[in-house]
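Example 3.
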Amino acid sequence: MSVEIYQPILAKTNSASVFPVREDEPEYAKLKDPVSKEKNRYGNNIDLIASDAKPNSLNINGVDEIGPNPNRHKQHAFHFTADNCIGCHACETACSEKNDMPAHLSFRSVGYVEGGTYPNYTRMNISMACNHCDDPVCLKGCPTRAYTKHPEYGAVIQDPDICFGCGYCTWVCPYNAPQLDPIKGQVEKCNMCVDRLEVGLKPACVSACLGNALDFGVVENTPENRQQCATQIPGFPDPSITQPNIRFQQIKTLPKEVTRTDSMPIKYQKKNEGDAFKTVIDQKKGTQKYWNIKRLSSRENPLVIFTLSAQAAVGVLFTLLSSSLFKHGSLASLTTSPVYAVLLVLALALVALGLFISTVHLGKPFRFYRGFNNLKHSPVSREGLGIVLFMGFLGLHFLLTLPANEWVRARVPAITSLQGSTAGFASMFAGLALLSGLVALYYMYRCYCIKARPFWNHWHAAATFYGNMLSLGAIVCGCTATACYLLNASSPLPLWQELSTFIIAGLVLESGGLIAHARDMKNGEHEGSVSHYEQTTTFGYTYIARNTLMALNLLLATTLVFAAQLLPESLANILWILLACSIVGVALIGRSLFYILVIPTTMPGAFFWKNKGFEQHARDTGLANLPQVGVVPEHLVH
Amino acid sequence: MLFGRKKKNPIKLHDKGVQQWRYATCGYCSVGCSIELGLNAEGQAVTTRGVGGADVNRGKLCIKGLAEAAVFNASGRGTDPMMRSRIFDEFETTDWDYALDHTANEFRRIQQKYGRDAVAVVSTGQIMTEEFYTLGKLVRGLIGTNNYDGNTTLCMASAVSGYKRSFGSDGPPGCYDDFEHTNCLMAFGSNLPEQHPIIYWRLKEALEKRKFPVIVVDPRVTMFAQFADIHLPITPGTDLVLLNSMAHVIINENLHDLNYIQQSCNGFEALEKLVQQYDPTSASKICGIDEDMIRTVARLYAKADSAMSIWTMGINQSTHGTDGVCAINNLNLITGNIGKPGGTSLSITGQCNAMGTREWSSCSGLPGYRLLENPEHREEIGKFWGVDPDFFPKKAGLKETDIFPAIETGQIKALWIVATNPMTSMPNSARIRKSFEQLEFCVVQDTYADCECNQYAHVYLPGAVWAEKEGCFTNTERRVNLTRASQPAYANSKPDGWIFNQLAKRFDNYENMHFPESAEAVFEEMKQLSKGIGPNGKARILDISGMSYEKIEKSRGIQWPCRDNDESTDDKQPSPTGNRVQGTARLYTDGVFQFPDGKAKLLAMPYVENNEVPDEKFPFWLNSGRVVEHFHTRTKTGKIGNCNKFSPTAYMEMNPDAADQLGVKHMSYVRLVSRRGDAVVLVQLTHRVPINMVFIPFHFHDCVNRLSLGLLDPYSRQPAFKQGAVRIEHIDQQEAAKLNVSMRTF
């Protein structure tokens, strides 16, 4: 291998870089890629910009020099020889030391899978950080555009000063590379040690490796003394998701089944030698069913509220506007009654509440305005914009309907004269609001189309969101009208009869989605099936209760449509209200389950580190109060 | 390709603001890595890095070294001397003069009342060689107790005894460079990847250049066992049987090096006769390794052009520890594998300066491998120090493991503990606690005030740590390496050498002696003592007279012997510092050993079964060992998040099949019970351990050593930590969790 091409780097020790090459810098720390291929296996160019393009400085910490690394415009990648990793934590610690990480965070983590029977036992350690993917889903997902993929080394670098701490990148990344610091409320991640690369040095983790497992260089180059440049090892997510820039060597025979020591009920199996390992359920907690009602409440509670209230708000408008299509009936009369304004205010309040809660949920709420920075790629940005537009148009619609409002007219007679000129605009904004709302809900659904989270990545999310829009929207209308009608001593029953169409449609849509979801998850060979295992065990009774209630709701709604006239009016009213409460309850439980059950395609953890089970135990018992345990206690979470 | 922003933002990376780097030797284990401390503008050490051109670590560091800058400001550091009259009183802060006056007065009072040996000193492997030498001078020359030992009795004593019995002297004959030359490596009870990751890396580098067979003997499937070509999952404590049987095969199949044996060894006939009892068929029944495998391994080892053995606690911490070491030496002597590149018996040592204390602390005798039993040595040292030779005892006193029983029986009334933590590290902690309670006076000198044995101290003296002081460590391969003081001592703590010097001033005869102020001056004094003629009539091996602080730093450590005017240079590693002094890579290259006749001893050692083994009441082997992220009793690493987080609490490895039978669940607590006491641990189920064994990392206070028996090796007095029997009981999970949290709180 030629080292000569790096002579200019070695000579340039007067660099202002944070990491000048030392005079006695060991050879293993130096990058050595005298040749490289043109395209990677995914067909992408390894040269990231044209060879005659003007090089730019990376401007690292205010140093504006251009690194002398001759390969700086080539995509670089880690190479991990899993057969060699001894799990000594040197890579993790070198990284934490260089990046000044607190104990509870780490850009790189080592976990393991194990298998076999004593003494024919194998443990395979896996060290994993950011893979600086060709298709960086973090960059696409980030609503604030905190991520940049640089044409220098292909490094995907995140700027914590831009990040507002929504954590969406931590959802979409299949490797758990972006680290959400619950104390600082922002994300940070591996920066490929670009300061070291600029002077021709391998990243800190690679240079620190004591098992000769980690290596680094231009992608698709097989390092010296290595034979394999594969894209998969057991425990590593499907590389087609992001086209990660990591290659593996794993040629020693592994047992046909390897398990994880962390609490994740996942193991990996292969049928025959040479087959790839598949993710299957490891029934670590048996098949016993539990309620675990308390655990329904999680740090995603704000999102439960946000999504449901936004769906309800859009649903209210949807109900009102569709009813205005009818000329007769209770719904039609609703649109001309003062209740209409009350409902608009309620819808506005619901969406405002949702937005407020989801903003406060951010790690850095005051940076909320950055949420629309990435309309080009991020469903989060689009969802956010849709919701804000919905709210804005709805507000304008509300203002412009005031001249037609009897209650307002009675108090401000002068406003009556405006009715003629506002009515048209009012309708236009109503239409725009509904359109924005529906689009917002679509992108809300798109937010959960995450390949790294198979439990979410299913059309049932759309069915549930639109289904809840229909049912919750109708319920809000129905309950509000009931309150107003009862005050006026008129009967809300005819209205409920008409709203029942929306309610039943919503329930049918949602339950249809859930049935298909359960079927697909059960039969899947991925983390989604593991989520389903959790759903039917850890939350088994809760899940059954939710499903039963949902079926009963559908039954009750249908029955009431046909049988309400046979009942005394007060009883019918009570039953409708009960149904409404039950639907809201089911929606809350269902949405909470949706969030807590998702199992991402993360890497295997160790017994303590990156083990959700131990983290929970440390929080529950107070062990987490010792900062050196590396688990953030509940009271310090932002 | 998708790049995101067209106009790229500047990149901000964490920068600890290192302004200068200061040279040191890592203060954790005995690998002896050269390390540089990065000081920021305020002079505060904020990070570390491996020294690129150092031959030992070649720029690498393990997890502990990488996070080592955090030791200076870790919680629990002692700020001031503290005193109290009774152990149930609160400590009160005092000044150094008063604390030292009181200590000296109490030692004198107790010695006058109960005799000179009623004061005991238990030292360490953690402080600098110059400090060891000074402590030895103080204890042997002024205090005058013979009950003076280091905690190396818990880790390296069997290696020392074994080297002495086989070769006539302590001093590991090999070096890490032997990996580059060997044709077969056999590791006994040594888990390099976790215990000595840098040595493992050196081995890995050698293996990547040139494949040779690696054989690992370990009852547990460690990473090393897993990576070995041949893993021998031996029955605990039976290494001697395996080794005798290997010798049987080698001798009976005529694979031994008769020339070498005739030239350099005594005792072959007795060995040959003894090993006839250890034919592989009979041996396999005891040691659990099948007879074919014993033959395969013996032949492989004997036929290799050069073969080397390394070992660690799996051998040393056994009732047959010294015999095991001697049997390894036998193996290498009969195959002619001592003193040649790639052929050696290399004990992989434990603490950063276990070697320094063995060489210079006078614990087991007098400095520089001199013996109390030898009147010439007493005479020589007495004259050199200004001490009446008759003041020295005529034979070595008690070892640490005998000192505590002597406290128990009332022979010892005062104890001075220097930088060690017997409350966690000694076997059978309940017995150690009782011993502590018997003491009339106890001094604990330690960097950390929360060191567990401080619970029983009357006087606490806060010591400075690592690079707050200057001085040398000697590593596993006899390499003397330097630590420069780069930090001021924390708060009102003081370097241990300063404490020894100040205490010395308070004893009679001080004015006739000389205690140099600076570490370098002490080193110069030691150099004088290191010269001379050894027991075999040749130049002494422990000769450091060719070294100086400047040469050591420049050479990134020098291996002894390095005699005056030794100009041999070493150009293996790039050196920005100019020419290095090489020192001596290997001992006994001429086949001449340290016995008067120059011949090594082959020892005939029968295996005696005296372990506590599993039975019906206590059906599990209790095995203990190290994890990579922790050092010893966790007084340092337990407070450093980036180390501690990888195992923040006590746990045990247990076989899933055994757990199934008992209904024990992964990540649940169980109570372990032995004949000594009980302990609560989290369960990690793994097939790393056999169905009848549990493995517990020994680092945690009030854990494995509440259970351990620690029968003593007859020669080294080292405890058999790794052999004992326990049973497993269920425990209320919430109570156990509460208990666990309280035990882990610093």
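Chain A touches chain B through 91 residues (CB under 8 Å). Confidence is low (pLDDT under 50) at residues 1-15 of chain A.
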